Amino acid sequence: METPKQSKGADTPLLQVLDLSIGIKKPNLTVQLTEGVSFELSAGKIHGLIGESGCGKSISSLAIMGMLPEPGGTLIAGSVRFKGENIYQMDELALNSLRGDKISMIFQEPFAAMNPLVRVGDQMLEIFEYHSVDFDRHQKIRNLLDEVGLSDHRRILKSYPHELSGGMLQRIIIAMALLLDPEVLIADEPTTALDVTVQAQIMSLIVQLCKERKMSVLLISHNISLMAQYADFISVMYAGQIVESNEIKAFLSRPSHPYSRGLMGAVPSLDRENKKIISIPGQVPEPGNYPQGCRFNGRCVDATEQCLNEPPNKNLENGGRYRCHY
Amino acid sequence: MAVFSSLTRDRFSRFKKIKRAWYSLILLSVLFGLSLISELLCNDRPYIMSYHGKLYFPMFQFYTEKEFGGKYLTEADYTNLRNSEAFSGGENWMVLPPAPHNPMHSYIDLEGAPPHPPSRDHWLGTDSSARDVFARLLYGFRICMLFSLILAAISTFLGVIIGGVQGYFGGIIDIAMQRLIEIWSSLPFLYVVILVGTIYSRDFIILILVLSLFQWIGLSYYMRGEFFKIRNLNYVKVAKTMGMSNRHILFRQILPNGLTPVITLLPFQIIGGIGALTALDFLGFGLQPPTPSWGELLSQGLNNLFAPWLAISTVVCLFTTLLLATFIGEGVREAFDPRASSN
To answer: What percent of chain B has pLDDT over 70?
Structure first.
């Protein structure tokens, strides 16, 4: 697989999400789920997307592959550009050959991510029915199983999903996602359903694959320590917007949005023994019920008159962006 | 692709362990199998016969009455021939099936008025038209089973397709179809049967078509729910993110995983079909009369209460068939119980 050299500045990034707004059409109104979501993925880097349940992480990630929520999902504005090409202007055929081939995805529940009635090996082979390849398919599967650290190939390929453990299945799913050497891998909470020890293994596997293959990874999670450990960039999502995005180091040392600070404060830590874990007051507003101005205004202790009226959007001097007036 | 997954095999072996259901299945299949060849078992045409030194094979070949000394070119009546003097006089012989009766033949020569009580010749007696009750029960069973199997097949097909489309596409398609189904299902079924039966003939195919217009509705509800559930499962999403086609997702990912209600409901659909046909025949809206049918025998039994062999034999047959089918259905449901398979 040929990979571009580490792109420098002006090159277009591998995948760009620009101002993406997605909604659901109801009979008499459209409920907006995400608004103006923008981020970039570049080769060999892990981009973290963090936020609580229902903030639009998964919707945005599926939208990268051109999959809108069903029923009634609709693209309100924005675009997703893969190597400069807007995938929302592709036809179904081109889109289907992009999916799995160039962009591929792993899901959080390994047990639910595989068809319970089909053997693992057959499920892997099925993918090739929709994408023509010029390499030996069986050999490729075996190589990939080696790569994800599974050795007993014969048994695994002949097994049904319920006969394998969660960690093994997640490795198989990663192998499946890599079958066609994708350039972008979306990992939607790949470790939430797994034991902590297995979590670490799977994460280091993903990091290793990302670096080796110069693949670009979008890592979705609600676990900030996981992000701190593995991500290169981070975007914090709140109520359908990205409220802050920056390089991970800059972000960790100085989070700018009050929500990010809240997230950081809510992490228990060993070296801050006496500190109380801070929780963010209030609840996430529901889609369609987002407040005017800053979406965090109802829960922010420092909210002012300005926060109630004007939606904030600011750039940081170190290249990051955040949505807060202060 | 594995045709039978280990799950299916598990379920099958669990079904086999439920003795009552397993033996019911065997018994009902054997009975149905025998009824499929009832022409060979219960027929007034001999397998082979010798008449004036010549061999005839009436069961497999058509002979006119003329060949045996009659006047007409219609098929010979072997029951009359057997009893005629011309036949018993010479060196003639015939090999008859175990139950030598045609369900359509009226034994008007029997002593007394029909219905005749059970006798050596007529094990279950005759009905009010002097036709052999055993023969009519046997042929009636075949019609009943064929009817309900075909009906179940058609309504399963319709139910899966319609429920599947609703569940898979959802949204406005689902809501619109659901309202239409509600309107459709509130049509008075019996009136439709009577109307269609009056306008067209009341034959087998028309009756199946009319009944299958209504029978699929129940199953479609289940299939809609299954498809709704499965299309949101992750493996369907995975298939989508892998760029697989809608058709693949529908037929290879969702359908095989959503077949449980089809299989568990199938025996009960068959029971429903038998019940429906019998009821319609009983009311006189079913199959065209001389067709042997259980419903018609039941109504004869009601009209001839002094001839209990009519009602009793029919009720016993109906009860046994329904009981066997219920046992099978119960066994299938138990074998498919997810709570039993989880360990």
So the answer is: 95
**A114 closest CB neighbour out of B170, B235, B248:** B235
A68 close contact with B: CB closer than 8 A: no
Whether B243 and A129 lie within 8 Å, measured CB to CB: no
The verdict on A91 touching B (C-beta cutoff 8 Å) is: no
Q: Is A130 on the interface with B (CB under 8 A)?
A: yes
The residue among A282, A290, A299, A308 whose CA lies nearest residue A32 is A290
Distance of CA A192 to the CA centre of its chain: 13
CB atoms within 10 A of CB B180: 11
Looking at chain A, the whole-number percentage of residues with pLDDT higher than 70 is 92
Q: Is B225's pLDDT higher than 80?
A: yes
Test A96 with B245 for CB contact under 8 angstroms. Answer: yes
Cα dist from B96 to A6, B49, B102, B297, whole Å: 93, 9, 12, 26
- The string of pLDDT tens digits covering residues B82-124 is 777 767 766 777 888 887 888 888 887 777 777 888 888 788 8
* Contact criterion met (CB < 8 Å) for A114 and B169: no
Contact flag A122-B2 (C-beta cutoff 8 Å): yes
Query: Residue for token digits 């595989």?
Result: A114
- What was the ipTM of the complex prediction? 0.71
pLDDT score, position B152 = 92
Residue found by looking up tokens 């995805």 in the block: A105
Q: Which of A97, A99, A118 sits opposite B241 (nearest CB)?
A: A99
Nearest to A296 by CA among A325, A254, A317, A321: A325
Write a three-state SS string for chain B. Answer: CCCCCHHHHHHHHHHHHCHHHHHHHHHHHHHHHHHHCHHHHECCCCCEEEECCEEECCCCCCCEHHHHCCCCCCECCHHHHHHCHHHHHCCCEEECCCECCCCCCECCCCCCCCCCCCCCCCCCCECCCCEEHHHHHHHHHHHHHHHHHHHHHHHHHHHHHHHHHHHHHCHHHHHHHHHHHHHHHCCCHHHHHHHHHHHCCCCHHHHHHHHHHHHHHHHHHHHHHHHHHHHCCHHHHHHHHCCCCHHHHHHHHHCHHHCHHHHHHHHHHHHHHHHHHHHHHHHCCCCCCCCCCHHHHHHHHHHCCCCHHHHHHHHHHHHHHHHHHHHHHHHHHHHCCHHHHCC
Predicted confidence band of residue A3 (pLDDT cuts 50, 70, 90): very low
